[in-house]
Amino acid sequence: MTQTVRLSERSPQVSADELLAGFHPSYRFGEVSFDTYIPDPAHPSQREAVERLRAFSGALAGRGGSGGLFGGLFGGKKRSTQPAGIYLDGGFGVGKTHLLASTWHAAPGPKAFGTFVEYTNLVGALSFRKTVDVLKEYTLVCIDEFELDDPGDTVLMSRLMRELADAGVRLVATSNTLPGSLGEGRFAAQDFKREIQVLSDQFEVIRVDGEDYRHRDLDAPPAPLPDEEVVATARRSVPDAGVLAVDDFADLTAMLSRVHPSRYRELVKDVDVIALHDVHTITEQATALRFVVFADRLYDKDVPVVASGVPFDQLFTSEMMHGGYMKKYFRTVSRMTALVREGQLGVAEEK
């Protein structure tokens, strides 16, 4: 029997140990590999990225998962000629997270996989020094969606990455560059290298070109449903004894302001499908940024969405979509559209 819940009535709690335990690929990327990544023949850089990352993770496995990048310097072994890390630069939906997760799966442990926001939350929960002390024992740290729109967080993460690399940890990060910003002078790669000054020469930047696979060769996104059809449609996608979350969009966004983003994963961990009534355009920047994190957690867990109101390509104002946080908002629109397509049309992603 389906259990119906309201996310707006939840108040999840997450300890620092639970945060650390969650630093692995999400359900969506829990079993991916380089073999399950399907390169687009029209964009050779995708296959080249697979081959380079396969070699990178293979080199990590070859050194037994211990000693770190500079372990040979102190352990008597020959110092590795591999770069300290790799930075995947590309647009939305080209499979960067798939490649990042594949690298994590292929590498020996201990290892960590999380989003940029999740690492900043970890620093907030543990302190900077404790975070370094924990992660410096790892072989590999993967950072998804390295963000450059908050100077404070960017400097914080750059310092963290410098200290981890100095301790011998290998790093792989992905960017959130807009398709219109690719090519010469692209924002993400330049700012990334400037912010991690000490490491800039040791990072290898790999371009991953292509179209957004979430919407490649698909019809236009489905229109929002009439409000009275939302719950009934959502129930058809809920598995036996599954959990359906039903919320008014206004109540949901109000709740997100009361719950720290580090707890959003816990918020939706048991949810199979979400039904949203009366989605409307978000006009406040703080609310929009919180919803970005929430949408990432839904996408990580592959939670189909059924909704009424405005379509998700109207979720943010035009000013937001062309402002300083545009990269985050475009990513959210892409991901929410994919989840709505799955929830309302039963069309799941294949890549």
Can you characterise this structure?
It holds the Pfam family AFG1_ATPase. This is Cell division protein ZapE. One of its GO terms (cellular component) is cytoplasm. With 351 residues, the protein is an alpha/beta fold. It has two domains: 3-13 and 215-345, Rossmann fold (3-Layer(aba) Sandwich); 41-210, 3-Layer(aba) Sandwich (Rossmann fold). 41% of the residues lie in helices and 15% in strands. It contains 14 helices and nine strands. The protein has helices spanning 16-21, 44-62, 71-75, 96-106, 116-126, 128-135, 151-166, 187-195, 230-235, 249-256, 264-267, 285-301, 318-321, 326-345, and strands at 3-5, 85-90, 111-115, 140-146, 170-175, 203-208, 243-248, 273-279, 305-309. The strands form two sheets. It has a five-stranded parallel β-sheet, sandwiched between helices. Helix 7 links the parallel strand 4 and strand 5 (170-175).
